[in-house]
Structures are given as C-alpha cells and as structure tokens.
Amino acid sequence: MFQGETAITLDDKGRIAIPAAYRELVAKASANRLVVTYNPFEHGCLWITPQGAWEQLRDQVNALPKTKSAHRILQMKLVGAATHVEPDGNGRILLPASQRAATGIEKRAVLLGMGDRFELWGEQAHLAKIRETIGEDQITEDMAELKL
After folding, report:
1. Mind giving me the DSSP string for 128-141?
2. Which one of 4, 75, 110, 136 is CB 3.0 to 4.6 Å from 126, fit for a cystine?
C-alpha cells in the first residue's frame, strides 16, 4: 500500500527516483516492473502503477465497448499511452518525454502514494489541486457516510 506525499526532482534526462521508503514495496508489488500512463481524470498528473495491478486495470478498460467515445478516450489515455519502466540500480525511472510534455511535469513534481498506485503531479498542478476545497454541494452519498 502506497501512501504519502514526496517532493520529487526530475533529472536532466527526465528521470525520477522512487523514494527509498517505497522501493521495497515496489519490488514486492511488481518485481520492479511499473507502468506509467496518463491520469484520465486530472490534467497535470501521471499514474505510476505496479505491473500486476496495471494488467487488471488494462483488461477492464480494454473490455469496454469501443462504440462509445468516452470508452475510446479512456482506452487511449490509459492503454495507448502506457509505458513499462523498471527502476535502475539507483531506484530511478525514466518518464516518457511525451507524457512529461502533455502533463506539464517539468523539473519539480510531487509523488503521491494513492494505495494501489502513485500519482505524479507537476508541482504547480499539485498546488492548484491541493488548494481546491470540497463544497457542500459536491459531497456525495458515499462521502457523507464517512466519519471525518
């Protein structure tokens, strides 16, 4: 289970270092095999998912009927853009240049552990998202049942 927030710096080649606290978890969860793809719901964010969890998600997404536009967009952003990566000896992974450019992830970013995957946010996109508040009119029935 991945959780927590870590400031990350991309090197000149577009690599990030998986924080040391997560490296053993990544190795166990995925035999050091990760998949990087777009977050289909939020601009400025990539998903980094262990390969096993990724394969389950990929199969579910690919099973959606391709006759609906929203399904094709989801398939394009998740499956079509998916890149397999493995941390090197220093725990670094190379983020595809096209994904970095499309999301605006540059030198400084934020890595969030989101349970079964990581989210990698560009620093400014993360700051904007973290400053958002949830209004009363946005609270869903599921949220209302939480003991916050």
Report:
1. HHHH----GGG--H
2. 110
**38 closest CA partner among 78, 96, 89:** 78
Sheet holding 108-115, edge to edge: 2-9, 108-115, 118-122, 45-50, 34-38, 83-85
54-90 pLDDT per residue, tens: 999 999 999 999 999 999 999 999 999 999 999 999 9
pTM (2 d.p.):
0.93
Count of CB atoms within 10 A of residue 8's CB? 18
Which domains are delineated in the chain?
Answer: 2-134 (3.40.1550.20)
